[in-house]
Amino acid sequence: MKCVECGKEVPKLYEELVKGNIALFQCEACGKVADKYVEYEFTLVFLNLILCKSQVYRHIIFNIDWSTSTYDILKILFFSSILDSSLASCESLPCWLLQIIKNCAVIILFFTGVYIAAYSSGIKCSKMFLLRAILFSSFGKLGNFMIITWKYSSLPSTFMALFIYLNNMIAIRECLEVHTIKAEIFISFAWMFKTLLSSWFI
User: Which of 30, 148, 149, 156 is deepest in the core (most CB within 10 A)?
Assistant: First the structure.
């Protein structure tokens, strides 16, 4: 668990002094509440995600025990691939399945590129933490449904791509605990790695 304000390790996020009543733990390093999002409703957390706040990504990546199993990660990967496939002009089930498989492979290649770049820089990280950070920060793909509604206009698709890139960068930066520039370098390498291999094999 980590403080969402300064990123330092904390032993706990809150104490339950009385049953049903909790007291948020104060970080000793920065003197602020370690994780204010513990008391936030889902709607407020989602709004902070839309605002691309680093604190909410620290909360999601390090302080929430979600998607810890391989099965959970595969479900999120599959759903993300379906969102990517929603813009494809497929009219048959085999076409849809092939498109979903291709998109799964592209996501895995992007993750592999980030991991290789981080490992080459001497940064050790949990593969599960990194993969779920990348998958969750791509929630902007939900905008694909709006793109379909807007008849595939290039403007909303461009904004959506920039939004996903920004969230990926923040999530990778917080997960790997690196500077913004280094996170952008990792993403650039992963994008080239993904593009090169997908053009060869996919």
Answer: 156
